[in-house]
């Protein structure tokens, strides 16, 4: 019998206990496109890791940004779980049969693209080779060790649009910020992985990233 690690199943069981940050609360009127992302954890060479993609810099929305695999829930999808697995397969070549879904986090709202996003928590019990299977949408695919994400040397806050501060991670040549960083920050803390880091380390969002983000 395939069993996900206790920290992940416990995280899934308590998903509803953590309040949704004000900036990510879905509109009460139900507007927004339904979407889902796959938060796929696995057991890598350096301990637990998570699958991330870097979106194509040629895209219109969220161009060049590191993200979880995912996308819109299509009519033929049987809900967010099916959508997250389908999108991950299309974007990375992931084999869904090697994945055990353990739960879902509360729906979050991504105002920039008007998406109501359901993060799907899953365990990669039988890893397979992954790659940028949809080059028009994805530039790179990475398995990022949790140890690197929580390393204080890789953590910072970004000054966005002059004043707003956002948590961020600088790992494997990627600057993970925005929605993806906020969700990762919350999940890593809830799972007990987070270690103290210097929150006074603040940098401006690089100009080239600001330019890409402005496309949407």
UniProtKB/TrEMBL annotation:
CDD domains: NUDIX_CoAse_Nudt7. Transmembrane segments: none annotated. Keywords: Hydrolase, Magnesium, Manganese, Metal-binding. Residues 31-169 form the Nudix hydrolase domain. InterPro entries: CoAse (IPR045121), NUDIX_hydrolase-like_dom_sf (IPR015797), NUDIX_hydrolase_dom (IPR000086). This is CoA pyrophosphatase. The keyword Magnesium applies. It comes from Microbispora oryzae. GO terms for molecular function: coenzyme A diphosphatase activity; metal ion binding. It comes from the Bacteria. It holds the Pfam family NUDIX. Its cofactor is Mn(2+); Mg(2+). PROSITE patterns: NUDIX.
